[in-house]
């Protein structure tokens, strides 16, 4: 066995679990299914609430800061990795795809991991649409140049949001039918998370007034 990382016990290193590969879904806008935002100027940004590249429109909702710590498959920090992240708006629609949203490209962006592997996005809490548990999509690329050339990602996966935070957010205005949609699904029946979600369930702290922060460590 390889020696443990500094500050990590051999047992912790042996227990390292890579996040599962998941579908990018039908609305990736990475060139694999219709639009491609990865090659557009302005896609590299931390605040993804507004449209970019000459398009207008800003997504509204409860503020959410998304923090992902990207690691290698051996759970070492992955500095320089590029993360493309996207999710639906407060009412469950996806920019560039959903009805009425084909002329906006908000809630999509790329960030590069710092020396500790951390990427941070400023966004809104996504809504819950029929048939899916509330989630956030992301693709991890080896480098920024690979991401902005729409190359092959190292990993494609999804982050799940915890029930308590979702229930609280969906009780606020602007989230349409998210509360009723949430009541009809569960992590154990979701098409993506039903086979296990221990490595994909984010920790969420905060409140609806000042906003929430979600954190997840992602061994890729």
Descriptive account of the structure:
With 220 residues, this protein is an alpha+beta fold. Helices cover 11% and strands 24% of the residues. It has a four-stranded mixed sheet with strand order 4-1-8-7, covered by helices on one side. The longest helix is centred in the C-terminal third of the chain and has 8 residues. The radius of gyration is 17 Å and the shape is globular. The two termini are 19 Å apart. The N terminus is likely disordered.
**What is the spatial order of strands in the main beta sheet?**
4-1-8-7
Low-pLDDT residue spans:
1-13
Q: Total helix count?
A: 4
Oligomer: single chain
Helix content: 10-25%
How far is the first residue's CA from the last residue's CA?
Answer: 19 Å
Question: Structural class per helix/strand content?
Answer: alpha+beta
Main sheet record = 4 strands, mixed
**What do the pLDDT scores average to?**
94
Strand content is: 15-25%
Sequence of secondary-structure elements: HEEEEEHEHHEE
The geometry reads as globular
Strand segment tally: 8
Specify Rg, calculated over alpha carbons. 17 Å
List keywords for this structure.
220 residues, alpha+beta, four-stranded mixed β-sheet, 4 helices, 8 strands, globular, disordered N terminus
Protein topology:
Layout: H1 10-14, E1 63-71, E2 82-86, E3 108-112, E4 118-124, E5 135-141, H2 144-148, E6 155-160, H3 163-170, H4 178-183, E7 203-207, E8 211-219
Parallel strand pairs: 1-8
Antiparallel strand pairs: 1-4, 2-3, 2-5, 5-6, 7-8
Give a quick summary of the entry:
The chain is α+β, with helices and mostly antiparallel strands.
